[in-house]
Amino acid sequence: MRLTIAAVALACASLLAGPAFAQPKATADIKDASGKSLGEAVLVQRDGAVEIDVTLTGLPQGTHAFHIHEIGRCDAPFESAGGHFNPDGKKHGKDNPAGPHAGDLPNIEVSDSGRVKLQVAVKGVSIDSGPGALLDGDGSALVVHEGADDYKTDPSGNAGKRLACGVIHR
User: Fold this and answer.
1) Is residue 73 a part of any domain in this protein?
2) E strand intervals along 124-161
3) Would residue 58 count as lying in a domain?
């Protein structure tokens, strides 16, 4: 039996695309306090970081803090999600000399249409292994706050109330 180069390449691509080589992936359906879905976040483990790709609609216009929280529960008003994901015990904010938390993410800017899209790579976390595992025993959540994060005030950047929340899951 003779194999062409194209046939060998196709066979190799099929093997590499299989489950043994798949990157760990998770999602979060982000909802407001009334339970209305505002959008979804897709999290993929890649190159030593977790890439988060989120698209949301229906949020108030303006700048809002966006964080990974330490508990995978989203009972309104979302205090059930606990504090920021912080496996290393650091202070809050990228501008804090003793920070940041692993769950401190960039602010999101919501347009007057209520739509926002963010793509960010987060180091110090993983989907399901190690001390920074988001899918540990109590899980994790993504939370949108009513105000902007000042990137320095511990423990939450003076970001205000929690507007929306999504439990991270497979």
Assistant:
1) yes
2) 141-145
3) yes
Q: Mean per-residue pLDDT for 43-64?
A: 96
18 domain residue, yes or no: no
- What is the pTM (predicted TM-score) of this model? 0.86
pLDDT of residue 21: 56
Residue 64: active-site member: no
The backbone region for 125, taken as left when phi is positive above 0, alpha when psi lies in -120 to 50, beta otherwise, is beta
Catalytic entry in 64, 136, 149, 162: 162
Owning domain of residue 84: 23-167
Q: Tell me which of 13 and 114 has the higher pLDDT.
A: 114
Residue 84 a catalytic site member: yes
Q: Is 146 or 17 the better-scoring residue by pLDDT? A: 146
- Are 67 and 124 in contact by the 8 Å Cβ rule? The answer is no
14 within domain boundaries: no
